[in-house]
Each structure stands twice: as structure tokens, then as C-alpha cells.
Request: fold
Amino acid sequence: TQLLEQSPQFLSIQEGENLTVYCNSSSVFSSLQWYRQEPGEGPVLLVTVVTGGEVKKLKRLTFQFGDARKDSSLHITAAQPGDTGLYLCAGALTGYSTLTFGKGTMLLVSP
Amino acid sequence: GAGVSQTPSNKVTEKGKYVELRCDPISGHTALYWYRQSLGQGPEFLIYFQGTGAADDSGLPNDRFFAVRPEGSVSTLKIQRTERGDSAMYLCASSLGRDSFTDTQYFGPGTRLTVL
Reply:
């Protein structure tokens, strides 16, 4: 059973479109992180959210942590080809527990 | 400064052989993590070191897998009697400490292991 479910698994869009990807769980997390991974590289941390209802913005990326701290979303505005990659969410059940990753959403942005 | 490095970048071996995968963390990072990522999956935790000691090895799948960090810096993941199911990307990450709220894990580029 996957602790973190990400959807969709794959998303192919045109440059300039907006998109939202989701990360859901039945468990409550103390913190949740989003990473982006490009082929042949390790994941790179984008953001950490720790407070229920928290919204963080990183340029064209908006991250939201659900009020109950069980889910999160990542919204990208005006996607660019450079946004292409595997987007992973990862949660920690406590502040000092290991990270559990979802399977990721593979995003392809075409020019 | 230098990031996390892993060697080799690719390793092809035969079933039953022994392999060692090396990780050089960022200088000064006391925490070091090993993950395994299969195709179409997210990284799966294997083991965590704080300094020289393995603080949490609950993710190691069986006793064929072992990891060391003798001087609190470089770590080696060792796999004995490799099986085809061990084929995956092995990722190493390091961080200043263990607090998931504040300590960013920096990942290396990984070692792609293929067991024929």
C-alpha cells in the first residue's frame, strides 16, 4: 500500500498551460516536501510545508498543504519546457522520521 | 561548493556477484541517507547514518545489503549475492542534521545498478 498517492502519474501539456498535481494520503504528516527530478539526476528539493493550510509560492509554482496535513498540491502557472521532469512529494510522519516518497508525476511540457 | 557525488555512475554485474557503491557527501554534513529508486517509483529509504553509526537501517530489504560510514564522511553500500531484482538507481543524500523541518536533503546523481 502506497502511503502517498500522486496523481496524475503522467501529464503532457503545451507551453503556457496551467496544471495542478496532487499528493494524497490517509496519514497525517508533520511536514511534506516537493522535489523535482530530471533524468539521470537525483531529486532536488523545491519546498517544505509544515503548517496545515499553508500556501507557498516559488515564482510560477504554488504549493498548498491541506488543512488536515494529509494532502498537498502543486500548481504551475504558464508551464515552460524547463519545467519538464518528475515531481515527487515526500512526507515525514514526525520531525525526525524518514521520508516516504510518492511515485511521482512525470510532467512533459512541449514548446 | 561540491555537491554529493556517487561512484560509479553505472554498474553492470552478473547475478550472484558482490558490488560496492560509494557516496561522498557534502563536507560537514553529519547525516547521510541511502535510497533505492526502481523504474516508475519514487525513492525508497534504505538506511540513515548520523556520523559513523547507522541510526536507522529499517529500510534494508534483507541481509544481503549492508552499508558503512567508518569515518563519518564517505559511505559505501555493499550488496552481496546480487539478484536481478536489485537492479535500480541507488541514490545517496546528505544533510546537516535530521530535522525534516529545517534540514534539506541534497541528493547525488545516483548509481544505476544493472544485474544481468
